[in-house]
Amino acid sequence: MKKLSILLVAGLAAFSTFNNGVYASATSLANIIDDNYIVTNAAQIQDTIVLGKLYFVNLKEGEQPIMTALSLFGNRCGSESFNHKPYATEGIRSVFELDEWIEFHPQANAASGIKVMVFAHKEDQSFYTKNSLNNETPGYIQECELNKDPNEEENNHWGSFYLHPEEVNPGYYDFVFIYKNKVFATMLTHFYKPNEIYEKSDSELEELMSQSL
Q1: Are 116 and 144 in contact (CB under 8 A)?
Q2: Whole-model pTM above 0.85?
Q3: Quick one: how far is CA 7 from the chain centroid?
């Protein structure tokens, strides 16, 4: 009888240990799943494309992009302060009306050779780094060379263009920045039809710029 009791206690102890092990494993697994869920969602958040942010690509570790910051001016919407935002890598003016002249004011390590190409927005931004880009590339709209004029004032624009409302539709467009035939940055913008946002206040325009895709 005593031997049976000892065996029974030993069995219960083993069962308890096994149960604790299963519980621990289940708890660990739950933590792993939860961690992976967080990581996955963090990646999804990181993949969200924000208006007016320069997304630098093709950079080696520690390498500085050829264009380090940007300011964009428009000639229709917003006050002077809205159109003369400081040089930045995000929060850059990114909402415009079609037919609005856009001036590019970059801070760069080269005075010439930078080009901006405009494409209808692509969800897969890696398209721009995986393909050679030209005026026959799907989604191509137009392009503009950015060159600093040594005879102009320091804050003068390096290039400008507009999107004609009879040639393109309102919507989202990518500015793709290229130097020596290599894409180094992209930026999402939103173009509205003429006079659609002309009367909006600076705060309302900033609200439009807070969108993301």
Answers
A1: yes
A2: no
A3: 66
